[in-house]
Specification:
Elements (H helix, E strand, L loop, with lengths): L2 H8 L3 H8 L7 H14 L5 H8 L4 E6 L9 H16 L3 E6 L5 H11 L4 E4 L7 H9 L3 E4 L10 E4 L1 H14 L5 E5 L5 H16 L9 E3 L4 H12 L7 E4 L4 H11 L9 E5 L13 E4 L3 H16 L8 E4 L2 E3 L11
Length: about 350
Amino acid sequence: MNLRQLAAHLQLSPTTVSRALNGFPEVNAETRERVVEAARQLGYRANTVARRLATGKTDSIGIIYPFEPSDLGDPVFLDIIAGITERLGEASMDLMIVSAAQEHELDTYKRMVSAGRVDGLIVARTQVQDPRLEYLQEKGFPFVAHGRSALADPYPWFDYDNEYGMRLAVERLTTLGHQRIGLVSAPLSMNFAAQRRMGYLLGLNAAGVAVDPDYMVHGGLTPVDGAAATRKLLALPQRPTALVVDNNVSALGVISALRQAGLLPGHDISIIVFGGLPALLPDSATVSAIMQPQARQAGRTLAELMLARLAGEPTPSLNRLWKPELVPGGTDLPPPRT
């Protein structure tokens, strides 16, 4: 079946059917749904080469990502990618993942945009001041941010309430009686790390616990960085009785450093990890965590926001903020008796 035959079946013009299938905003929602459903039932498949030549669209959404080896083993990240891919596939679109060196990441964005290789971009690991988002907004190029940032104009984003999640962790530990709580952070230029650090400070303040800057260590976003931060905290004259780790990548190194120091999480020291630990680790069933629920649905939501942006929906309506949740395990216990 070709486009003209589908249009004749629906008693619509070929132009209207084409615009409905391509997501043009001037076609009303009822007509678009009727066209899409008929195309599905009758097995219509568009000539993608002709469509791209006619519309200038690639039917692809991109993610540019500065991969570390640990990213490929992160189940949360993989679930998000699966959700994005699944939802875009339902709209007959593909996800293109481009690896970029961190120091040349913005140059990669510029090449992708100038070459018209994708119809839109999903921007991951947003920064407090993010030149990638600033560039895309200046160019008027469609994007959705996975995380918030400081931009002058409204923009589409999806995020979890990082500050709230970290307050949950600190509240849990202070309720158990901990006063010396260490924080292992990703670089504070990353928006999620800055928000979670604020949640840590607010949580201590709410519990009447004095803030000690020595108990807050930030660095990179690798297991090596997590291990180094943990060794620094353990070397303090009064080491923390509990740790909160603001990401599950560094947490791998934190657990390793604790073991090397002969400390058993949940017995000698408490620990809560934002994002939990990979299911392949033996600790995964017991490590207490602040979880970002429904990772696959979060990916689908990112894709839905991207599709809505491409369809011309107003930007202020394209924001989603979800609440993380505390999942107690066996590593958040009262401080050991001295």
